Amino acid sequence: MNKVNIIKVNDYQEMSEKASQYIIDKVKANPKMVLGLATGGTPEGTYKRLIEDHDQNGTSYDGVATFNLDEYVGLSGDHPQSYRHYMNERFFNHIDINKENTYVPRGNTVDAEAECEAYEALMASVGGIDLQILGIGGNGHIGFNEPGTSFQSPTHIVDLAQSTKEANARYFANIDEVPNQAITMGIASIMKSREILLLISGENKHEAYKQLIEGEIQENFPASILRNHPYVTIIADKAAIGE
Ligand code: F6R
Fold this sequence. Notes:
The chain is of the alpha/beta class. It has helices at about 10-30, 45-55, 85-90, 110-125, 160-170, 185-190, 205-215, 240, and strands at about 5-10, 35, 65-70, 70, 100-105, 130-135, 155-160, 180-185, 195-200, 230-235. It has a seven-stranded parallel β-sheet. A three-stranded antiparallel β-sheet has the order 4-8-7, covered by helices on one side.
């Protein structure tokens, strides 16, 4: 088993500061890097700080390409709850990235299977992801890879777990509006990235944190596979760690 580097921080704010600095250093070292991105509540503060830094210090994303982990099936990119919309609003619109180099699976495509294959091929064509940012679900999901997903899975279509729909209902008018399916990078796609930065914050992630660190590596807890990745950094706050 590989050693996972764990950076302990006090709270969400410090996690966001550390994570953004981590990303800024990587972008400066490799201005043409391929960045894997996540949505959800966890990285919001990180994106905010990246924008502040871009404004204040001029860190450039001109040569950077990005691939997002996932998108809801059935939502077009201009739907307010789509992950494309989330990324544009919370990050891309505020930095100097070329939008055509920002990839999010297309949720409203007529052929979602073909979209999965094309997305996987696209990642390979740019040489793979250099640094993948991840959050984690309370049930150990990464991307939308729910418990039981094969560790060998490439980008694929998933049925969302009820717990995931409930957790994400806060962004929709009600739970019935949360789509039932999503396109997600698979576990194998995520594991191909050269480096991974996992962010964990809050008491509601404590059980997931504990299982990630102490539990078995098994498909019923998808994030556990990260312990087999050669280059993972976790930034976790005290509430998640349980201190
Ligand atoms: C988001 C994603 C998910 C989230 C996870 C945690 O693109 O792939 O795996 O990272 O559901 O979500 P939050 O951060 O909202 O707790």
